[in-house]
Amino acid sequence: MNVELLVSKAKQVCDNRGARFTPIREKVFRLLASRQGGVGAYDLLEELKLTESSAKPATVYRALDFLAELGFIHKIESTNAFMLCHHFDHNHPVQLLICDSCGQVDELHSGVLSHELNALAAERGFSVTGQTIEAHGRCEKCKD
């Protein structure tokens, strides 16, 4: 998807929610939008320092916290990385296919998997408030 279109969409979401899309938040958003897979916070920091020489780890972590809170990004827990969500205009369950060879991450949205997990959890008296399912393997390009 076009980065400028994503930025415009993110600004609109921020306006609608009364949140500030500061220049630093926008720069981190753009860095994530330019990536295919997940990226670590310190890699983002190194890229950010190219234009913001005074950027510190806290700068990036605050921006990532903001972006996650608004649903703009997903944290890939198993690799401690972050990726842009292209469907941030609505709340949705997430399944991630993570290639262990090249690092590509594909985002899926299976309502069936989500429903099944919620139903199994409810049988045990558990209420799911959010779900991200991560599956590791090899993408089509790397499986040979």
TrEMBL record:
Task: Keyword check for Protein transport, yes or no.
Answer: no
Q: Which Pfam families match?
A: FUR (PF01475)
The domain of life is: Bacteria
Keywords, comma-separated and alphabetical: Cytoplasm, DNA-binding, Iron, Metal-binding, Repressor, Transcription, Transcription regulation, Zinc
Say if the entry is tagged with keyword Transcription regulation.
yes
* Localization (cell): Cytoplasm
Chief place of localization: cytoplasm
Share what the entry says about its subunit structure, partners included: Homodimer.
What is the recorded name of this protein? Ferric uptake regulation protein
Source organism of this protein record:
Pseudoalteromonas fenneropenaei
The uppermost taxa in this organism's lineage are:
Bacteria, Pseudomonadati, Pseudomonadota, Gammaproteobacteria, Alteromonadales
